[in-house]
Amino acid sequence: MLPLSGTDFPDSSPTLAAALARGLENHGVTVRTVQAEGGAFPAIETLRLDLTGANITRDLKLSHESAPASAEIRVANLSLIAAPLLLENTPVQFDLHATHATLALSRNSDGQILLTPTSVADGTLTVATARIDLERLAHSLISEAAGKQGIQIKETRLGFTQITARAVGFKAEISAKMFVMSAKIAVTGKLEIDDKLEARISNLGCTGEGMIASAANALLKPHFQRLEGRTFPLLAIRLGEISLRDFAIIAGETLQIRAHFGTA
Amino acid sequence: METTPAMLLRKTKLTETSLIITWFTAAHGKIKTVAKGARAPKSRFAGSLDLFFDCEIDLVRSKKSELHILREVVVKNAHVGLRSEFDRVAAAAYFVELIELVTEPDHPAPELYDLLQRAFFHLSANAASKRALLHFEFELARLLGIQHPSATAAIALGRTYHHLPAARAGLLKRLL
């Protein structure tokens, strides 16, 4: 759902563009440009959002509509790009293009206006991030969590292996220090993505040498049990009637997700 | 060649095949030895050099440096119970770091040796607790002669040695 500022539904392409930019900025997402051009509103020839440079954190919460759609906008060419945006300070390339998209205008429980895609004739999505940037993000998140336990993380190395077109294996090798103890442990698991663009984590395990690895394994086991099999939505928007036609996750020095979608 | 009871405090990689082992001994206090070949696949030290092990060691003292040569190790107590939980391991590691902080190399401290040994036995048989941690700090400060009625042992140790191990706060939060 894309939030719009203001209390009234936009009545022209320029007001839609301005409401989209301010609505996202109200959620802390800085928009580089919004272009809404051509066509006879509510039909628009081109709607293009550029989020390059936007800094998105895990605190961003986009609400969902609570009332049925009141109006809709039809867009011949829709694009949402970021080259890159920063997700928790990690550069992520994002490139979404769709043709003949219908976007519903509705409100959430606070009365805020939302723009929600309900159908598209054809669309493609590419999301890519460098392995080294994910490694840096993993190091930062692991250090934050471990620091609360008094554990210092010296180094984190992250690697991916392709399992199937929709699944990758991951291995995080972590060098940790606590008091006189130093240890190298490896956390492994599998990441699968389903037709709803939801990620599922499974096969979580921890290996390492000696007593400290055993102790770390015992410490991590309850956390692994909570995560095992859980799904996480990759997109903050509901896909509604839009379904995936083709999908691939590609592991390498860049982790890339490619999707082809449309309304049946 | 000398033989002495010793507790293993720290292991540090020296070369691809050797380790520096820091021991807390009954006879000489804190000492460092080289365990030649300890990292090799078929080492004679295999399985006998792990943190917190209570051992009897044979060493050849160096006349030139504080790094002596480790000849033999016999494990007397591996403190298996201590290794069963992360919190017990973390508490034992904290006690070791405190002992390292307050001792000088080759300086016998039989009371501190006894304190650390009792702490390991306690953690082998009991869960780690805030009470045990504070008791260790109190006994340590008392044996060092720095405990003062108006301050906690942690403050006394921090004042005397200028810092306490940084991970102490995190460990205290974990312990009940």
- Strand fraction of chain B: 25-35%
Average pLDDT score of chain B = 94
Class of secondary structure makeup of chain A: alpha+beta
DSSP strand content of chain A: over 45%
Tell me the helix content of chain A.
10-25%
- Shape call of chain A: elongated
User: Termini of chain A, distance in Å?
Assistant: 21 Å
Task: Tell me the major beta sheet of chain A.
Answer: 10 strands, mixed
Low-confidence stretches of chain A: none
Characterise the protein shown here.
The complex is a heterodimer of chains A (264) and B (176). By secondary structure, chain A is α+β, with helices and mostly antiparallel strands. Chain A is 19% helix and 53% strand. Chain A has helices at residues 13-26, 131-147, 210-227; strands spanning 2-4, 33-37, 43-50, 55-56, 71-87, 90-107, 113-119, 122-130, 152-164, 167-178, 181-193, 198-208, 231-233, 242-250, 254-263. In chain A, strand 14 and strand 15 (254-263) form a beta hairpin. Chain B is built from five helices and five strands, in the order βββββααααα. Chain B has helices at residues 86-102, 110-125, 130-144, 153-161, 168-174, and strands at 2-13, 19-25, 29-35, 54-60, 67-77. The longest helix of chain B is centred in the middle third of the chain and has 17 residues, at 86-102. Chain B is globular. The mean pLDDT of chain B is 94. The chains are: A alpha+beta (264), B alpha+beta (176). Chains A and B meet through helix 3 of A and helix 1 and helix 5 of B.
